[in-house]
Every structure is written in C-alpha cells, then in structure tokens.
Design brief:
The chain is built from six helices and no strands. By secondary structure, it is mainly alpha-helical. It starts with a helix and ends with a helix.
Amino acid sequence: MEDRVKKLLIQALGGEAAAWRQLALPLSEGGSGTDRDLCRIFLHKAIELGDEDSFFLYHQLFSGGSIPVDRASYIGMLADYMNTDDLQVREQLGRYLNQFA
C-alpha cells in the first residue's frame, strides 16, 4: 500500500470527511464490483461526516444524478434561499436547488 494511501486512511479513520472522499475517488473509476462497493462505503462515511461534495459525487455515481428530495424540503430550501442575504448560504442552497430542478 502506498504511503499516501496509508496517510489518507489514518486521516479518514480519525474522522476527516475529505480523506474518505479522496480514498473513494480512484475507486470510482474502477470497473470491478469490489472497487465500486468500496467507493460507495467510503463516500457514505464522508457523507456521515457532513461532506457535501461527497453527497453530490455519490448521487452522480450511484443514482444517475437524481437526488431524491421531498416537496416540503425543497420548498423549505427555496424559502431559505430567497430570504437570505448571505452569499455563502445562497451558493450552498443554490447547489442543492439546481440538482432538484
């Protein structure tokens, strides 16, 4: 195992979401079922730790780009988007809203 991968594993097991995503990325291109299974597991770990990039990547790879959302959640996010002046919040919510549109 490469030193870089070992360091990422230590970071991931220490609770760093981005490390889980970095471990998943090379596996996302693998053709074997085992690689895809590991990719899915690693992305789940990153998502559990709150990594939004992993959330979008997971849905891009494993759900045909379709992110399931209920109507009430969409309406709530849209209201939050329309009622905030915080550009960072608008950018974050806009990313979700564009996926659901």
